[in-house]
Amino acid sequence: MSLTQTNQQKEEPKETPQEKKAEHKKKTEQKKKPWRKILYIQQDYPDNHTDKSFLEFMVLNATARRRSFGELSLAATSITQELSIVLLFIVIFFHSYNNTLPLVHFVVINSILIVLGYLMFLYFEEDLEITFDLIFNHLKTFFIVFTAVFSLSSVLRTLTKAISNDTIWALTIFLFCLHLFFQDYGYLNGFKDRFFAPFSLNAAIFGSVILASRLNSDFYVFVFLAFSFQVFALSPLLRHSIKKFSNEFQVLLTALLFALTFGLIVTFNALFAILFFFFVAFINFGSPLSLMAAQKWKLFIQGPWDCAVVETVHK
Amino acid sequence: MKQEIEITLEDIENEELVQIPKRKSILTGKYLKKPKKSYRIAMITDFFYPSVGGVETHIFQLSQCLIKRGHKVIVITHQYGDRNGIRFMTNGLKVYYIPKLRAPDKSSFPTVWNNTPILRDIFLRERIMIVHGHQEISVLAHEGVLNARELGIKAVFTEHSLFGFNEIHYILVNKGLMYSLLDGVHLICVSNTTKENAVLRTALSPYLVSVIPNATDFSRFTPDPTQSDPNWITIVSITRLMYRKGVDLMVDLIPIVCRAVPNVRFIIGGDGPKRVFIEMMIEKYDLQDRVKLLGFVKHENVPKVLVQGNIFLNTSLTESFCIAILEAVSCGLYVVATKVGGVPEVLPNYMISFAKPNPEELAQKLIEATEKCKDVDPYFFHKEVREMYDWHDIAERTEKVYDDMMLQPERPLFEKLRYHSRGGTWGALLNKLIFMLRLIWLFILEVCFPREQIHYAVDFPTDKFLKMKKKKLNN
């Protein structure tokens, strides 16, 4: 049926009020054409008409993911580990500085830890072909670095002779803060496969070198720098493979490191130990809770107004 | 006896192929009737002559049509180099070029206090009733609208583009617009998609947003079938060659189409950072005789380029209302465009075909279009599109918005503080603080430059001028 036909129908003039009323009723009952989302024809609606279909193609939070407390807490353990390791390192430095570090015990424990750590790394790491070539390359690198540190230790001891203690402490704090900020936590959590945090590694090595320059004997310097190499360059690799291998081991390792650091700090300064405890509680348990509380505000809006995404962009 | 008729969308779409119900006002010419009341309107924006573009043309044409309807219109914009002070344009359109530092992307730097004295002075001496700001990225428009609302002058804002939500510059821009529109400012959007986008961005009530489309000067874009080469099917595309305009899609689809249809050729006008990729593609596939790159095409030469073609290609990735496709249809070309933003609302489906923004589908639609464009009558297209979009019609609809605005009651200044409670706890506090400080600033200005001492500006005698023009034309 064509619309033009009905528009041209003619009516007789109505006389009685009843007929007029019936006529008026029919007129108002005649349906309007539905509103269409187009601009090129005149529609029987005002310009600010808002149809039922308004915003019908809007999509909210299509890609947003709700995270659980356990998941977030587990991811935060790598930050706790890093913090504990840095503080452990500084505590060991203070013991060395005050000559209260039992050097022989320290060297023995370190050597055992290095060997054990390396074996664990080989065991936990997936996609690793354990050939003689691989182990030989690892041992070669290890030997070269340690020899270099040993030979440079006497130079490094007198590196900062002209600089005052206060400058060294301030610079160290700054550098280790940078190290904590820019560390590759994605790698430490097993999300990425390549350790890429040159800035944080450089900051840590720089900090440990200037700390080492405050020590008294060459051998101390060598032991300390070997320890810093072990902690900042080698341990991330091990921690990555532990996290990927098993979540329980990760939690166990974090707890062990935390307990060790806490125990050592308590011998120095009880207040600092308590602060450390609360800070770790905040990072490991408080921040996941606040992120979960904020998740309900997540609003990612998509719709036909979005800029289209092209697959192959020429550069 | 009248029957109740079930009218479905299908009926209407089938009807379109036979006869489109056009805008009555354009057909009957009833828009030339004098309006109820004549308003004094100030268009305020950063984008105006001598810079050339879509927004500038929109403001100029709208102002001219409103002047012809009997309103008084002035334009306020920032200075362009040496061009400052007051200039007059066609039919007595007064343009104020106020001193304001210009920012790199043609907009200006945002200020809170600096422009209130001069804007207040202009609004009072011209006895402005309505302030109409254009284009969201124009800082001067925001300032104009804010100042107008504080002075009790009605304000309207026109939004010409689409914005996202999830990057920092979008968030700032959206908050800026939300702040400007706090105090009962009516928003005009150029398409329904723009309206949805604007309502989401600024959390406005959708009943305060009207949809009034753009138009273009169709008399400059007339078809000329003698210009197009009958041996080839020519596909024209005139656009800035940048990422947003989908040049990556063009680079990928041209080889596919050239291979599939032997007598197709491309003419690409425009310049930009991605031009080098088109040249690389021409080299790689040896299409020197099939693809012609024209470089930058001046606005007055665009019709000459368009009439050489049979099909117009638009590969934009985002578009709120594409005026380019109107110009193309006016020159009698069939259009193939990406289905983004407000483009699906602009033309009926016998003039345009849509594709998703990937090169394979666009190439497919282009190949189909090479068949369809043979049946196209360019003069029919020109006549049709002329009856769909018209500046006088847009002026009439804008005037309706002005009528609605003038009927709104004006609240006392202190009550307006209530409007500033939007924007969250801290946002609301900041808004209210800024509002109070601005009120103090206005009070200081009122004391130093009282409005009784401001001389009214002499109006340009538009009526007499238009009558004189008519007489001259008739003689």
Automatic annotation (TrEMBL), chain A:
Establish whether keyword Glycoprotein is in the entry.
no
Q: Which UniProt keywords apply?
A: GPI-anchor biosynthesis, Membrane, Transmembrane, Transmembrane helix
Region feature (Disordered): 1-32
Composition bias of kind Basic and acidic residues appears in: 9-22
| Location of the protein in the cell | Membrane
Q: Which GO terms describe its biological process?
A: GPI anchor biosynthetic process
> Where do the TM regions start and end?
74-97, 103-124, 136-156, 168-188, 195-213, 219-237, 249-268
- Asked if Iron-sulfur is a keyword of the record, the answer is no
Q: Which family does it belong to?
A: Belongs to the PIGC family.
PANTHER family tied to this protein: PHOSPHATIDYLINOSITOL GLYCAN, CLASS C (PTHR12982), PHOSPHATIDYLINOSITOL N-ACETYLGLUCOSAMINYLTRANSFERASE SUBUNIT C (PTHR12982:SF0)
Can you name this protein? Phosphatidylinositol glycan
Automatic annotation (TrEMBL), chain B:
Record-level Gene Ontology MF annotations: phosphatidylinositol N-acetylglucosaminyltransferase activity
Where do transmembrane segments lie in this chain? 426-445
Indicate the segments forming the Glycosyl transferase family domain, all copies.
229-371
- EC number(s): the record gives 2.4.1.198
Q: Which domain of life is it from?
A: Eukaryota
Top-down, what is the taxonomic lineage of the species of origin? Eukaryota, Metamonada, Anaeramoebidae, Anaeramoeba
Pathway assignment reads: Glycolipid biosynthesis; glycosylphosphatidylinositol-anchor biosynthesis
User: Cross-referenced Gene3D superfamilies, in alphabetical order?
Assistant: Glycogen Phosphorylase B
Pfam families named in the record:
Glycos_transf_1, PIGA
Can you give the residue ranges of the PIGA GPI anchor biosynthesis domain? Answer: 78-167
Q: Which keywords appear in this protein's UniProt record, sorted alphabetically?
A: Glycosyltransferase, GPI-anchor biosynthesis, Membrane, Transferase, Transmembrane, Transmembrane helix
Species of provenance = Anaeramoeba flamelloides
State the protein's name: phosphatidylinositol N-acetylglucosaminyltransferase
Q: By its UniProt entry, which PANTHER family does this protein fall under? A: N-ACETYLGLUCOSAMINYL-PHOSPHATIDYLINOSITOL BIOSYNTHETIC PROTEIN, PHOSPHATIDYLINOSITOL N-ACETYLGLUCOSAMINYLTRANSFERASE SUBUNIT A
| GO BP, sorted A to Z | GPI anchor biosynthetic process
Q: Listed GO cellular component terms?
A: glycosylphosphatidylinositol-N-acetylglucosaminyltransferase (GPI-GnT) complex
